[in-house]
TrEMBL record:
Cofactor: Mg(2+); Mn(2+)
UniProt cross-references to PROSITE patterns, sorted A to Z: AP_NUCLEASE_F1_2, AP_NUCLEASE_F1_4
Oxidoreductase among keywords: no
Protein name, per record: Exodeoxyribonuclease III
Pfam family of the protein (one): Exo_endo_phos
Highest taxon, organism lineage: Bacteria
Protein family according to the UniProt entry: Belongs to the DNA repair enzymes AP/ExoA family.
Top EC group: hydrolase
Coiled coil feature spans: none
Gene3D superfamilies: Endonuclease/exonuclease/phosphatase (3.60.10.10)
Keyword Magnesium: yes
Ranges of residues in domain Endonuclease/exonuclease/phosphatase: 5-244
Keywords: Hydrolase, Magnesium, Metal-binding
Amino acid sequence: MKLFSWNVNGIRAIAKKDALLHVEALEPDILCFQEIKAEKEQIPPLFSTAFLETHINPALKKGYSGTMTLSNRAFTKTDTALHIDHTHEGRILEHHFDDVALFNVYFPNGQQSEERLAHKLKFYKDFLAYCEALRAQGKSIIICGDVNTAHREIDLTNPKANAGTSGFLPIERAWIDALLGLGYIDTFRHVHGEVKEVYSWWSYRFGARMKNIGWRIDYFFVSEDLKDALEDAFILDHITGSDHCPVGISIDL
Protein backbone atom coordinates (compact mmCIF):
# COMPACT_ATOMS: atom_id res chain seq x y z
CA MET A 1 0.00 0.00 0.00
CA LYS A 2 1.09 3.57 -0.69
CA LEU A 3 0.93 6.26 1.98
CA PHE A 4 1.57 9.94 1.33
CA SER A 5 1.99 12.92 3.64
CA TRP A 6 1.90 16.58 2.64
CA ASN A 7 1.86 19.89 4.46
CA VAL A 8 -0.35 21.73 1.97
CA ASN A 9 -0.20 25.14 3.67
CA GLY A 10 -3.92 25.65 3.05
CA ILE A 11 -6.18 22.97 1.58
CA ARG A 12 -8.41 25.52 -0.16
CA ALA A 13 -5.42 27.10 -1.88
CA ILE A 14 -3.94 23.79 -2.98
CA ALA A 15 -7.30 22.65 -4.37
CA LYS A 16 -7.18 25.49 -6.90
CA LYS A 17 -3.89 24.23 -8.34
CA ASP A 18 -2.97 21.27 -10.54
CA ALA A 19 -0.85 19.77 -7.77
CA LEU A 20 -3.56 17.40 -6.54
CA LEU A 21 -3.89 15.90 -10.03
CA HIS A 22 -0.32 14.64 -9.71
CA VAL A 23 -1.07 13.16 -6.29
CA GLU A 24 -4.26 11.47 -7.50
CA ALA A 25 -2.34 9.92 -10.42
CA LEU A 26 -0.10 8.16 -7.88
CA GLU A 27 -3.15 6.26 -6.52
CA PRO A 28 -2.53 6.70 -2.79
CA ASP A 29 -4.17 4.27 -0.40
CA ILE A 30 -3.84 6.73 2.49
CA LEU A 31 -3.18 10.45 2.15
CA CYS A 32 -2.33 12.61 5.15
CA PHE A 33 -2.49 16.41 4.95
CA GLN A 34 -1.16 18.89 7.48
CA GLU A 35 -1.79 22.63 7.90
CA ILE A 36 -5.14 22.47 6.11
CA LYS A 37 -6.23 25.83 7.57
CA ALA A 38 -9.91 24.99 7.16
CA GLU A 39 -12.95 23.58 8.89
CA LYS A 40 -14.90 20.62 7.54
CA GLU A 41 -17.52 22.67 5.71
CA GLN A 42 -14.83 24.78 4.02
CA ILE A 43 -13.01 21.92 2.32
CA PRO A 44 -13.78 21.75 -1.42
CA PRO A 45 -13.90 18.56 -3.52
CA LEU A 46 -10.32 17.42 -4.00
CA PHE A 47 -10.31 14.34 -6.22
CA SER A 48 -12.40 12.84 -8.99
CA THR A 49 -13.02 9.69 -6.93
CA ALA A 50 -13.98 9.79 -3.27
CA PHE A 51 -11.89 7.97 -0.67
CA LEU A 52 -13.52 5.36 1.55
CA GLU A 53 -12.93 7.44 4.68
CA THR A 54 -12.27 11.13 5.32
CA HIS A 55 -11.22 12.45 8.72
CA ILE A 56 -10.64 16.10 9.59
CA ASN A 57 -9.22 17.62 12.76
CA PRO A 58 -9.45 21.43 12.44
CA ALA A 59 -7.85 23.86 14.85
CA LEU A 60 -10.07 25.78 17.22
CA LYS A 61 -8.55 28.95 15.76
CA LYS A 62 -10.01 29.52 12.31
CA GLY A 63 -7.68 29.43 9.30
CA TYR A 64 -4.86 27.87 11.31
CA SER A 65 -3.09 24.50 11.50
CA GLY A 66 -5.31 21.40 11.22
CA THR A 67 -4.90 17.88 9.83
CA MET A 68 -6.86 15.72 7.39
CA THR A 69 -6.64 12.06 6.37
CA LEU A 70 -8.15 10.41 3.31
CA SER A 71 -8.08 6.62 3.25
CA ASN A 72 -9.16 3.65 1.19
CA ARG A 73 -8.23 1.43 4.12
CA ALA A 74 -10.95 1.07 6.74
CA PHE A 75 -9.89 2.25 10.18
CA THR A 76 -11.08 0.55 13.35
CA LYS A 77 -10.39 3.67 15.43
CA THR A 78 -9.72 7.35 14.80
CA ASP A 79 -8.83 9.85 17.51
CA THR A 80 -7.50 13.41 17.83
CA ALA A 81 -5.20 12.72 20.81
CA LEU A 82 -6.16 15.85 22.73
CA HIS A 83 -4.14 14.64 25.71
CA ILE A 84 -1.09 15.57 23.60
CA ASP A 85 -2.48 18.43 21.50
CA HIS A 86 -4.12 20.05 24.51
CA THR A 87 -4.14 23.50 22.85
CA HIS A 88 -6.78 22.31 20.34
CA GLU A 89 -4.63 23.18 17.33
CA GLY A 90 -5.80 20.17 15.30
CA ARG A 91 -2.31 18.73 15.10
CA ILE A 92 -2.93 14.97 15.36
CA LEU A 93 -5.06 12.35 13.70
CA GLU A 94 -4.53 8.86 15.12
CA HIS A 95 -5.84 5.93 13.07
CA HIS A 96 -5.80 2.21 13.84
CA PHE A 97 -6.12 -0.65 11.38
CA ASP A 98 -5.22 -4.27 12.06
CA ASP A 99 -2.36 -4.04 14.59
CA VAL A 100 -1.06 -0.73 13.22
CA ALA A 101 -1.40 2.76 14.68
CA LEU A 102 -0.90 5.48 12.05
CA PHE A 103 -0.28 9.06 13.15
CA ASN A 104 -0.81 12.06 10.88
CA VAL A 105 0.92 14.87 12.78
CA TYR A 106 1.65 18.55 12.28
CA PHE A 107 4.27 19.09 14.97
CA PRO A 108 4.51 22.61 16.44
CA ASN A 109 6.98 25.20 15.20
CA GLY A 110 9.26 26.60 17.90
CA GLN A 111 10.49 29.75 16.17
CA GLN A 112 7.87 32.19 17.47
CA SER A 113 9.00 32.40 21.10
CA GLU A 114 10.63 30.56 23.98
CA GLU A 115 7.13 29.55 25.12
CA ARG A 116 6.36 27.95 21.75
CA LEU A 117 9.69 26.13 21.75
CA ALA A 118 8.87 24.76 25.21
CA HIS A 119 5.44 23.73 23.91
CA LYS A 120 7.04 21.97 20.93
CA LEU A 121 9.43 20.03 23.17
CA LYS A 122 6.60 18.96 25.50
CA PHE A 123 4.55 17.89 22.49
CA TYR A 124 7.52 15.80 21.29
CA LYS A 125 7.94 14.19 24.71
CA ASP A 126 4.27 13.41 25.26
CA PHE A 127 3.80 12.11 21.72
CA LEU A 128 6.73 9.70 21.92
CA ALA A 129 5.60 8.43 25.33
CA TYR A 130 2.15 7.72 23.88
CA CYS A 131 3.64 5.84 20.90
CA GLU A 132 5.75 3.77 23.25
CA ALA A 133 2.68 2.91 25.33
CA LEU A 134 0.97 1.64 22.18
CA ARG A 135 4.03 -0.40 21.23
CA ALA A 136 3.93 -1.97 24.68
CA GLN A 137 0.38 -3.08 23.85
CA GLY A 138 1.64 -4.81 20.69
CA LYS A 139 0.92 -2.08 18.14
CA SER A 140 3.11 -1.35 15.14
CA ILE A 141 3.59 2.40 14.61
CA ILE A 142 3.68 4.62 11.53
CA ILE A 143 4.34 8.33 12.08
CA CYS A 144 4.08 10.81 9.25
CA GLY A 145 3.92 14.55 8.91
CA ASP A 146 5.73 17.85 9.26
CA VAL A 147 8.09 17.34 12.20
CA ASN A 148 9.42 20.91 11.94
CA THR A 149 12.99 19.75 12.64
CA ALA A 150 15.82 18.74 10.34
CA HIS A 151 17.68 15.85 11.92
CA ARG A 152 21.27 16.09 10.67
CA GLU A 153 23.49 18.52 8.76
CA ILE A 154 22.79 16.50 5.62
CA ASP A 155 19.11 17.43 5.98
CA LEU A 156 19.38 21.16 5.26
CA THR A 157 21.38 23.40 2.96
CA ASN A 158 22.93 25.73 5.53
CA PRO A 159 23.42 23.84 8.81
CA LYS A 160 26.03 26.17 10.31
CA ALA A 161 23.98 29.30 9.61
CA ASN A 162 20.92 27.66 11.23
CA ALA A 163 22.64 26.12 14.24
CA GLY A 164 20.85 28.55 16.57
CA THR A 165 17.49 28.45 14.77
CA SER A 166 14.51 26.49 16.04
CA GLY A 167 14.11 23.61 13.66
CA PHE A 168 17.78 22.71 13.94
CA LEU A 169 18.53 23.23 17.61
CA PRO A 170 20.47 20.42 19.33
CA ILE A 171 17.60 19.89 21.79
CA GLU A 172 15.13 19.40 18.91
CA ARG A 173 17.44 17.14 16.93
CA ALA A 174 18.03 15.09 20.09
CA TRP A 175 14.35 14.11 20.06
CA ILE A 176 14.80 12.47 16.65
CA ASP A 177 17.94 10.77 18.00
CA ALA A 178 15.83 9.42 20.87
CA LEU A 179 13.10 8.28 18.50
CA LEU A 180 15.58 6.34 16.36
CA GLY A 181 17.31 5.04 19.48
CA LEU A 182 14.04 3.41 20.53
CA GLY A 183 13.95 1.46 17.28
CA TYR A 184 11.95 3.70 14.97
CA ILE A 185 13.21 4.01 11.41
CA ASP A 186 13.60 7.14 9.31
CA THR A 187 12.26 5.47 6.17
CA PHE A 188 13.86 7.85 3.67
CA ARG A 189 17.34 7.40 5.13
CA HIS A 190 16.78 3.65 5.51
CA VAL A 191 16.06 3.34 1.79
CA HIS A 192 18.32 6.05 0.35
CA GLY A 193 21.20 6.28 2.81
CA GLU A 194 23.33 9.42 2.78
CA VAL A 195 21.89 10.99 -0.37
CA LYS A 196 22.33 14.76 -0.21
CA GLU A 197 20.38 17.84 -1.31
CA VAL A 198 16.97 16.21 -1.08
CA TYR A 199 14.57 18.40 0.85
CA SER A 200 10.85 18.69 1.59
CA TRP A 201 10.50 22.38 2.53
CA TRP A 202 11.77 25.60 0.97
CA SER A 203 11.18 29.19 2.02
CA TYR A 204 9.00 31.24 -0.29
CA ARG A 205 11.69 33.94 -0.12
CA PHE A 206 14.81 34.51 -2.20
CA GLY A 207 13.91 31.91 -4.84
CA ALA A 208 14.85 29.17 -2.38
CA ARG A 209 13.04 26.36 -4.16
CA MET A 210 14.48 27.24 -7.55
CA LYS A 211 17.95 27.18 -5.96
CA ASN A 212 17.12 24.08 -3.87
CA ILE A 213 17.96 25.85 -0.62
CA GLY A 214 15.83 23.70 1.63
CA TRP A 215 15.24 21.56 4.69
CA ARG A 216 14.08 17.94 5.07
CA ILE A 217 11.53 18.30 7.85
CA ASP A 218 8.72 16.02 6.59
CA TYR A 219 9.09 12.36 7.49
CA PHE A 220 7.70 8.87 7.61
CA PHE A 221 8.95 6.94 10.65
CA VAL A 222 7.99 3.31 11.25
CA SER A 223 8.58 1.06 14.24
CA GLU A 224 11.34 -1.49 13.80
CA ASP A 225 8.95 -4.42 13.44
CA LEU A 226 7.74 -2.94 10.13
CA LYS A 227 11.24 -2.69 8.62
CA ASP A 228 10.90 -5.81 6.49
CA ALA A 229 7.50 -4.66 5.21
CA LEU A 230 8.92 -1.37 3.94
CA GLU A 231 9.30 -1.43 0.17
CA ASP A 232 10.21 2.15 -0.74
CA ALA A 233 10.37 5.71 0.59
CA PHE A 234 10.30 8.86 -1.50
CA ILE A 235 10.23 12.65 -1.53
CA LEU A 236 8.17 14.03 -4.41
CA ASP A 237 9.99 17.33 -4.81
CA HIS A 238 8.71 17.78 -8.36
CA ILE A 239 5.17 18.39 -7.03
CA THR A 240 4.65 22.06 -6.28
CA GLY A 241 1.77 24.09 -4.88
CA SER A 242 2.95 24.47 -1.28
CA ASP A 243 6.21 25.44 0.40
CA HIS A 244 6.42 21.73 1.28
CA CYS A 245 6.33 18.79 -1.12
CA PRO A 246 4.70 15.39 -0.54
CA VAL A 247 6.66 12.52 1.02
CA GLY A 248 5.62 8.89 1.05
CA ILE A 249 6.28 5.22 1.54
CA SER A 250 5.26 1.97 -0.05
CA ILE A 251 4.74 -0.75 2.54
CA ASP A 252 3.34 -4.28 2.46
CA LEU A 253 0.50 -4.25 4.98
